[in-house]
Every structure is written in structure tokens, then in C-alpha cells.
Design brief:
alpha+beta, four-stranded antiparallel beta sheet, 23% strand, globular
């Protein structure tokens, strides 16, 4: 495998034209240093793209919320050599019980070497991804909010809240559901506002654990938005439906929690000493466009939905993985025409599907008789292995198939971490390049060797002679004909270098 040695300093860019009033010190400015922004920065740096990440907050969030990395996100971490580092800070649990909290065992034989859920504190995954990006050479500036921008044929001029002006070739908004970049861009964000809200916090209780567990088990039979779970150190994670929909910027009080606990459980469990308090709603919205010229959107800036199923962080990280190599190709000058537009055509339908399944799950959380009857029916249907498997694969994002045209079912899908000579497939993808996995040992990547690695391996655990993987691990071609391969190399990786 001919992988170039990574250099901490990116290759120099051509000087801006005399007509350009601002120099271009950055290729890409990313607004927002959450998981999506940090992952995107790291993916761009794999290709020596000069990246600046702007984060409006000066410090990480003061509260610790546990999030779950689903199967596909764990695979992405493995592809970039991050999985062992992430596993050190998380707790594994079976890949089960995701859909609407319906408790069913994990299906056997899920098509992944990482068929589990990893619970990990949100600040920890953000820190790990940010450290990864910085180690690769990305710059991160905190306390910097985007106040405005203007784009032209050559780049984007970004105005910060403190009056500073920056210049880059592209701007990507990874700045959350209230994205300043999306609003300034004028992209519509249609959908439904919150109809219900849920209070979430971490606090201590004043009654025995057995009493808490008994009451939670009783209420949890019908109310899936209610729980008190031991969190460690004497604290409990508390989730309870709110009395109504309030301003998201207005944090709930301990009294709000007590009032709702008494209303639903008949007791406030003596809760006290809160560590943090928050609220979330069920607003569901999807950006009309993911790209306008040189400005793009990713993560919650492009889509928001209720947290049921735990898909939000995963969806954003997977957006970044899809966008990173395509934007890098555009900047590096080898992107085929319209490659960057495939970011929207591939990822927006995935977000639509996530929004639909979270809508369905929220309906199944309702305590009304109709949704409860539907929940009982679905619970029964999930005893059928294929139904349970289908829903788990949907939540875990391993059922995605991008439309690459006619071909075998594997075309357009991600490939599991199969065994190859001297290791596993994902170990060959750490540099973020394409890969030709060749069981015939008769093919070549020729003039694309600066972008695509070639591994001749007759022993690879494949049912096809050869396949071409994109940097995001999706199968771009299957076959054994050199001419056909060359056509597909051109489709995804542009013109050959020689």
C-alpha cells in the first residue's frame, strides 16, 4: 500500500489573485467544534487541507451527558485508528432496545465486527475528536462567534463578533440547531416545532434506591419519557416530561423537576443538589439545502430531531465523514465535476429517514390509548427476528445504501471490517484514501495512486473478485475488468495524474 507520509504542515496554496482584497490563509473555516466540526476538521487534515475551527463557547459544557456511539460510528472510529482510544472512555452494551425503548434482545449475527453500543460522556467524545483534529494540524479558536460572511467566486470572508475578518475558500456550519451560518445563509429549515418537552438533569435523591427502582418500574410500563437511574457518586440521571413547551434558552429549575415528579410519580423522591439541569424538545427540522456555493451545512445545523434512539451525534459524525474527503478533493483540485454535490444527494435522504423514524418513535412514547396499542402491536412484531433486525440496523445506520446506479446489492453500501492479509480492512483506511481491494492481483490504480491505495490480496474475505472503496468505506465498484475500473476511478477520484 503506497500511502504518503502525513505532514503536520499543509502544502502551500497558490497566492490569491491581485483582485482578491483578502489573503486566503485557510482552505476551510468550520463554525462549531462539537463532534461534527471536530470530525470534519480531522478528515480534512488527512488531505493537508488548512483548517480553522471556530467555537463560540470559551469552555466545554459544564454538564456531563452520556451519549451512545452506534455501530456505524464505531466503524468510522476504527477506520481512522481511533476506536481503541474511544473504547477506553466508554461502556459497552448490547445493540438492542434502541427503537422507542422497546426492550428486545440484540439480533444474532449483525453484519459488523463492532456490533454493540458504546455509552460515552459527551464532553469526552468531543475532547477526543478535537484532540485528534489538533494532532493532525487543525487550528481551534474558542470564544469566536461567526457574525456574518460574504462569499464570492474565490472564497468566503467571515466576520467574527469581535470585528475580526477572516478569509477561507470554504465555510462549513457545524454550529448546531440554532446555526448562525444557516440563518445567515438564508437556507430554510422547515419542519415541526416542539410539541412536547422533557426535563433532563443530574441530581441526588433523598429516598432509598429500592423505592426509586420500584416506582420507576411501575411508571415505566407506560411512560417511556420517565426515569431515574443511578449515575455514580450518589447522583441520579433524572428524566421527566415537562409541563409544557418553554423557551429553550431558559434553563429549568430544581422546583420544575420536583413539580413534574410529583405530578407523574406522586413523589419528588426528595431530589436535591443538582449538578446540571436541562430540557429538550421534539422539534423536527431539515435544511432545504446542504450547500449554497462555498458554504455548507453539517450535523445539527442541517437537521434536528428528538434524541430518541440516540441518533443525533452519530448522524452528524457520519455527515462529516461523507463530506470531508469530497471537500478536500475539491480544494486539492482533483474532484470530479459534481462530486461535492453528492454530499447533499447522499446525506440528506439519510437525515430524512432519521427524522421519520424519530417521529414514529415519539408517537410510540405517547401515553394515549392509540399509540399505546400500536406500541403493544410493534412489541409483538419485534419478536420476529427480521423486524427486530431491520429496526436495529436502521438506528445503527448500517442499512444505508447510497444510489450508485445498477449493480450488486453491496454496491453503495459500507463494507464491514473483513479480514485481509496481515490484519483487518479498516486498518488500511487510516489515511482517508480510496482503496482497491484486489483478489485477482491483476488490476492497477495507475495514475490514481496518489489518491487510491492498491492491496492485492487473494485471501481477502470477499465474495467478489475485486472492489473499490471510497475513503468513507462505501463500495464504489465491483468487478474484475481494468477498463471498467478506470471509468469508476475517474467517476470518484477525477482524472489520473499521468
Amino acid at each position: 500500500m503506497n500511502s504518503p507520509q502525513f505532514t503536520a504542515e499543509p502544502s502551500p496554496l497558490p497566492s490569491p489573485s491581485d483582485a482578491d482584497p483578502y489573503p486566503v490563509p485557510y482552505d476551510v473555516i468550520i463554525a462549531g467544534c462539537g463532534p461534527t466540526g471536530a470530525m470534519l476538521a480531522a478528515e480534512l487534515r488527512l488531505h493537508d487541507v488548512r483548517v480553522l475551527v471556530l467555537e463560540k463557547e470559551t469552555e466545554p459544557a459544564p454538564f456531563v451527558r452520556i451519549v451512545g456511539l452506534h455501530i456505524r460510528s464505531l466503524e468510522l472510529m476504527a477506520m481512522r485508528g481511533l476506536l481503541d482510544r474511544v473504547l477506553e472512555h466508554g461502556s459497552r452494551r448490547p445493540a438492542a432496545g434502541f427503537f422507542a425503548g422497546i426492550s428486545k434482545p440484540a439480533p444474532e449475527g449483525l453484519d459488523s465486527a463492532h456490533a454493540y453500543l458504546l455509552g460515552i460522556p459527551h464532553p469526552v467524545i468531543v475532547r477526543l475528536l478535537e484532540e485528534h483534529a489538533v494532532q493532525l494540524g487543525a487550528q481551534v479558536r474558542r470564544g469566536c462567534a461567526v457574525a456574518g460572511f460574504e462569499q464570492d467566486d474565490e472564497g468566503v470572508t467571515v466576520d467574527l463578533a469581535d470585528g475580526e475578518r477572516l478569509r477561507a475558500r470554504y465555510l462549513v456550519g457545524c454550529d448546531g440547531g440554532r446555526s448562525a451560518v444557516r440563518k445567515l445563509l438564508g437556507v430554510g429549515f422547515p419542519g415541526e416545532p416542539s410539541r412536547t418537552e422533557t426535563l433532563m438533569g443530574e441530581m441526588e435523591v433523598g429516598v432509598p434506591q429500592e423505592e426509586v427502582a420500584a416506582k420507576v418500574a411501575e411508571i415505566g410500563e407506560t411512560n417511556k419519557r420517565f426515569w431515574l437511574r443511578p449515575f455514580g457518586g450518589g447522583a441520579y440521571s433524572v428524566v421527566v416530561p415537562a409541563a409544557g413547551v418553554a423557551d429553550r434558552a431558559e434553563l429549568p429549575t430544581l422546583q420544575d423537576f420536583k413539580q413534574q415528579l410529583r405530578a407523574i410519580a406522586g413523589t419528588d423522591f426528595g431530589v436535591h443538589s443538582p449538578r446540571w439541569l436541562s430540557r429538550f424538545g421534539d422539534a423536527t427540522r431539515l435544511a432545504e439545502r446542504y450547500r449554497v456555493g462555498r458554504v455548507l451545512l453539517a450535523g445539527d445545523a442541517a437537521h434536528i430531531h428528538p434524541p430518541t434512539g440516540g441518533q443525533g451525534l452519530n448522524l452528524g459524525v457520519q455527515d462529516a465523514f461523507n463530506l470531508g474527503w469530497k471537500l478536500a478533493a475539491q480544494i486539492r483540485g482533483w474532484a470530479p465535476e459534481a462530486l461535492l454535490d453528492t454530499y447533499q444527494t447522499e446525506r440528506r435522504p439519510v437525515a430524512e429517514d432519521v427524522l421519520d423514524n424519530t417521529r414514529a418513535q415519539m408517537e410510540l412514547h405517547s401515553t394515549e390509548p392509540g399509540p399505546q396499542a400500536l406500541r403493544r402491536l410493534l412489541t409483538e412484531l419485534m419478536d420476529i427476528d427480521e423486524v427486530n433486525r431491520r429496526l436495529i440496523e436502521k438506528i445503527a445506520a448500517i442499512d444505508i445504501r447510497y444510489d450508485f446506479g445498477d449493480g450488486p446489492d453491496l454496491l453503495g453500501r459500507r463494507l464491514r471490517d473483513i479480514e485481509v492479509k496481515q490484519g483487518h480492512l479498516y486498518g488500511l483506511l487510516h489515511h482517508g484514501r480510496g482503496l482497491l481491494l484486489d483478489r485477482t492481483a491483476h488490476l492497477t490504480v495507475g495514475g490514481w495512486s496518489d489518491r487510491v491505495d492498491h492491496r492485492a490480496d487473494p485471501t481477502a474475505a470477499l465474495d467478489v473478485p475485486c472492489l473499490l472503496l471510497r475513503p468513507d468505506g462505501h463500495v464504489a465498484w465491483i468487478g474484475d475488468d481494468q477498463q471498467d475500473l478506470d471509468a469508476h476511478l475517474s467517476r470518484w477520484f477525477g482524472k489520473p495524474a499521468n
